[in-house]
């Protein structure tokens, strides 16, 4: 017995020595999304929105009422949706080339996940929870995504470029690779094994829900082979581009999950301050609110710029929503924006954004507090961990969500934006999972497609876009800190 124990200990030590101690939490490239099922739909005969709602309910019920799964759906009484409880996250309806698209999200968690938060660190809670999305997709999005996949030929398969309802999960191993990149050694191996187990359980539960709780003929994506050549599958366009070690190397933890430590603070209290600030500021962005004109200008300008082809000069004028004749620092009553070409846009746009955005983010406003370019709400807020030590606040703003979703709802498993506040002894640590990381890892296909299609304006703006979101969330936190009497601040990052 002692001999056997010694062999086991030596084997364990060799494994720990052999396994990597730093770098990406998985050694291999990981696909962003797991396609669990799809059905082609005729929109002239099918209410796609109703199908998505039905399937989301079926998946939620499958995990909620069957004790054979350790995973269970997350529900939240705290929300800004005006509901008693939110069990399914509904994304804003977006229009892509004239077609309305819909998506719903079921989020899952288990006691074993809480065990890992306790064993590893509550700082990883901002990566939670696991996600299954049910969304619609149509031919224009599929054609664009195909540009990012030159290895997939559409020749002879054009008839498959049609409308679908798709069920997909955020790949747990992709979450490990991106969000746990600093996890090394034996813990790395144990957690990746856990992620594989989670993926298996998600597949099992979703498959049962689709087969036994709905009446649709689902294509579960099982490929057939002829002479070892896989057959064409439209799902391959929806999995996202593989996340590589090189990708992760460009995403240090300080960029992926920036944080602020607040000494002698309670995480639940800090989360309450953040939620209260969103509830207090959202009315400012309504039609009669103090920030409505500024918010509307941002939307108009960004939408026009995103649709600009870059081939002719960009020449627009806007009413200055911050203009105050008694304050020369607010500029002129009209804002004239002229870009001769894309190079001039790249040269001038950062200083233009700094001029109008940074004062708002920094609190140099009549309100005297940090504000955002758009109104933000939390669709849901809930606690994770055996002792509720991680407070999760999901973040959403309609305009920026629509911009992201406009690239295709296949990215919804990686959304929405997340803020987390966790307890670290006597301190509270406030975090965010940055849009820069989300876009860099899970929107690679759209970015690659835009670059390949020489959409230079859109490619540049898509790189700039996450920085706007970072600063908006930083200002959201900072405003909450100011209102709560907390001295710490997230850094505002000029362009």
Shape: globular
Strand content: 15-25%
Share of helix, binned: 40-55%
Rg of Cα set: 24 Å
The major beta sheet can be summarized as: 6 strands, antiparallel
What is the helix tally? 15
Number of strands: 17
Q: What's the end-to-end separation, in Å?
A: 64 Å
Average pLDDT confidence is: 91
Low-pLDDT runs of 5+ residues are 7-23
Helix-strand makeup class: alpha+beta
Report on this structure:
With 495 residues, this protein is an alpha+beta fold. The chain is built from 15 helices and 17 strands. The chain has helices at residues 2-18, 48-65, 111-119, 139-147, 172-179, 185-213, 245-249, 253-256, 267-281, 292-307, 342-362, 398-405, 435-442, 444-452, 456-484, and strands spanning 33-40, 72-73, 89-90, 94-96, 99-101, 103-109, 130-137, 164-170, 225-226, 229-230, 259-262, 314-319, 334-339, 381-384, 390-395, 417-424, 427-433. It is globular, with a radius of gyration of 24 Å. Residues 7-23 have low confidence and may be disordered.
Secondary structure layout plus pairing:
Layout: H1 2-18, E1 33-40, H2 48-65, E2 72-73, E3 89-90, E4 94-96, E5 99-101, E6 103-109, H3 111-119, E7 130-137, H4 139-147, E8 164-170, H5 172-179, H6 185-213, E9 225-226, E10 229-230, H7 245-249, H8 253-256, E11 259-262, H9 267-281, H10 292-307, E12 314-319, E13 334-339, H11 342-362, E14 381-384, E15 390-395, H12 398-405, E16 417-424, E17 427-433, H13 435-442, H14 444-452, H15 456-484
Antiparallel strand pairs: 1-8, 2-6, 3-6, 4-5, 6-7, 7-8, 9-10, 11-17, 12-13, 14-15, 15-16, 16-17
Helix pairs in contact: 2-6, 4-14, 9-15, 11-15, 13-15
């Amino acid at each position: 017995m002692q001999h056997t124990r010694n062999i086991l200990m030596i084997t364990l030590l060799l494994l720990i020595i052999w396994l990597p101690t730093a770098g990406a939490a998985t050694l291999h490239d990981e696909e962003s999304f797991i396609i669990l099922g799809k059905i082609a739909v005729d929109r002239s005969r099918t209410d796609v929105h109703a199908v998505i709602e039905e399937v989301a309910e079926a998946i939620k019920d499958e995990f909620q009422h069957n004790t054979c799964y350790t995973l269970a759906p997350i529900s939240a009484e705290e929300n800004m949706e005006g509901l008693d409880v939110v069990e399914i996250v509904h994304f804003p309806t977006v229009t892509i080339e004239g077609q309305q698209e819909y998506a719903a999200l079921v989020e899952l968690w288990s006691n074993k996940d809480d065990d890992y938060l306790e064993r590893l660190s509550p700082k990883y809670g901002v990566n939670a929870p696991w996600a299954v999305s049910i969304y619609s997709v149509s031919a224009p999005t599929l054609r664009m995504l195909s540009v990012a996949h030159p290895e997939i030929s559409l020749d002879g398969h054009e008839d498959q470029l049609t409308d679908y309802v798709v069920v997909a999960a955020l790949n747990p191993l992709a979450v490990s690779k991106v969000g746990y990149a600093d996890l090394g050694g034996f813990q790395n191996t144990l957690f990746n094994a856990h992620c594989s187990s989670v993926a298996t359980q998600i597949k099992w539960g979703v498959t049962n829900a689709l087969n036994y709780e709905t009446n649709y003929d689902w294509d579960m994506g099982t490929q057939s082979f002829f002479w070892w050549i896989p057959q064409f599958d439209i799902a391959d366009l929806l999995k996202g581009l593989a996340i590589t070690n090189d990708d992760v190397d460009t995403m240090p933890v300080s960029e992926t999950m920036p944080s602020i430590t607040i000494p002698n603070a309670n995480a639940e209290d800090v989360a309450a301050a953040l939620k209260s600030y969103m509830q207090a500021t959202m009315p400012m962005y309504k039609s009669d609110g103090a920030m409505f004109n500024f918010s509307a200008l941002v939307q108009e300008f960004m939408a026009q710029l995103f649709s600009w082809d870059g081939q002719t000069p960009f020449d627009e004028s806007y009413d200055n929503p911050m203009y105050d004749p008694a304050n020369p620092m607010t500029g002129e009553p009209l804002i004239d924006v002229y870009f001769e070409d894309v190079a001039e846009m790249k040269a001038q746009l950062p200083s233009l954004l700094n001029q109008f955005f940074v004062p708002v983010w920094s609190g140099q406003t009549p309100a005297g507090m940090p504000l955002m370019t758009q109104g933000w709400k939390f669709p849901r807020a809930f606690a994770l961990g055996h002792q509720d030590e991680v407070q999760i606040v999901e973040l959403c703003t309609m305009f920026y969500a629509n911009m992201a979703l406009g690239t295709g709802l296949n990215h919804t498993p990686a959304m929405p934006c997340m803020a987390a506040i966790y307890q670290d002894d006597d301190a509270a640590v406030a975090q965010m999972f940055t849009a820069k990381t989300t876009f860099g890892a899970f929107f690679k296909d759209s970015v690659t497609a835009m670059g390949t299609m020489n959409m230079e304006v859109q490619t540049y703006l898509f790189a700039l876009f996450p920085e706007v979101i970072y600063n908006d969330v930083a200002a959201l936190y900072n405003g909450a800190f100011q209102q709560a009497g907390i001295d710490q601040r997230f850094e505002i990052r000029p362009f």
